[in-house]
Design goal:
homodimer, Helicase, Ruva Protein, domain 3, Dna Topoisomerase Vi A Subunit, Chain: A, domain 2, 2 domains, four-stranded parallel beta sheet, 6 strands, globular
């Protein structure tokens, strides 16, 4: 552990270094940057964090971060309420929104089932998803979880819990990323991309 | 610019994204991490920054960050007061301290002369260095500034300002970094490393 010339500096660097992906050198750089800024700017920085932490609201329906009890997506009259896209976290909502290809609603699980990390179904917003599917007129649930073992487990758990033969349950397509070369793709992905191949005419129509 | 589902979230991400080297995606990741932490932890984080910004003191002598009017290095009776190492910023003090090879005092300039960035000699702690050299019993000044054009300019400016024939003025050695191969070194560095070669016996004695 490095020795700093000031206890105040030490504390601030320690605080930054606890953030994910921030090492002690970067923490020091960030703290010294803030130290050079006008006092008002540091107050704004600090204030925005305090305000967010103390006043944050999660949407009652989809658990997205919100300023009101229902988020702007759940409130919007132009969104298709019959399709619900299930995602792991809020960053995934932003990622899907940025594609501009989805006009339904979301459901944020707040994680995925991971026995290694001690995260079980009861730690996630799964019960409220099941209730929501039953009470609202949901026609399709898109499972947009990570394409790894934890994601697959969570997909399967939710699929079993839904247990509604009329409901369409889909998952996002697994395949070769656009711009990628086939020879570098792993076999499982390439295999899936062949099994779940898309009609060329469909692809052309999606330009 | 991405749209977030909450104005509070937006503000916090904006605040983080203003820090050097932090993009919007990283900013969002950090903010969402803080959001998951207990409220007390966020208060500690925020408190450490506010406290540092409001209560920070710079050492009257060397301009290092300090908790008192004189920093722990300038106060220390075991340091050699006759040698002053001139550095660009506080991070360089930490870097030199970490080598464990220097037992003198420091002088933090707070930057280097850079006409492009509009930084002139008067923006830096040069006047106080000259005063200090004259008033204290300084026998050697080590210029440990970056080995680039701005550093060279600043070295030359300080050297001219000191204008004391009795005083020993040195710079840190330029040469091949330990572990580097000669064929990848640039010609100027390699040239310098030959011109300013070190007696092998001296090197052996420094093990």
């Amino acid at each position: 552990m490095e020795q700093y010339s000031s206890k105040l500096l030490q504390n601030a660097v320690d605080a930054f270094a606890q953030l994910p992906g921030i090492g002690r050198k970067t923490a020091l750089r960030l703290v010294l940057h803030l130290l050079k800024q006008p006092e008002e700017d540091v107050e704004l920085f600090v204030g925005s964090l305090t305000k967010l932490r103390n006043e944050v609201i999660y949407c009652q329906k989809c658990h997205n971060i919100s300023d009101k009890s229902l988020c702007h997506i759940c409130c919007s009259p132009s969104r298709d309420e019959t399709i619900v896209c299930v995602v792991e976290n809020i960053r995934d909502v932003i990622a899907v929104e940025n594609t501009g290809r989805f006009n339904g609603l979301y459901h944020v699980l707040g994680g995925i089932i991971s026995p290694v990390d001690g995260i079980g179904p009861n730690d996630l917003n799964i019960a409220s998803l099941i209730t929501r599917i039953k009470e609202d007129k949901v026609g399709e649930v898109i499972l947009a979880l990570p394409t790894n073992m934890e994601g697959d487990t969570t997909n399967y758990y939710i699929y079993k819990k839904i247990n509604a033969p009329d409901l369409k349950v889909t998952t996002i397509a697994r395949g070769i990323a656009i711009g990628d070369e086939l020879e570098y793709a792993d076999e499982i992905t390439l295999g899936r991309s062949i099994m779940n191949r898309t009609l060329y005419e469909t692809l052309m129509a999606q330009k």
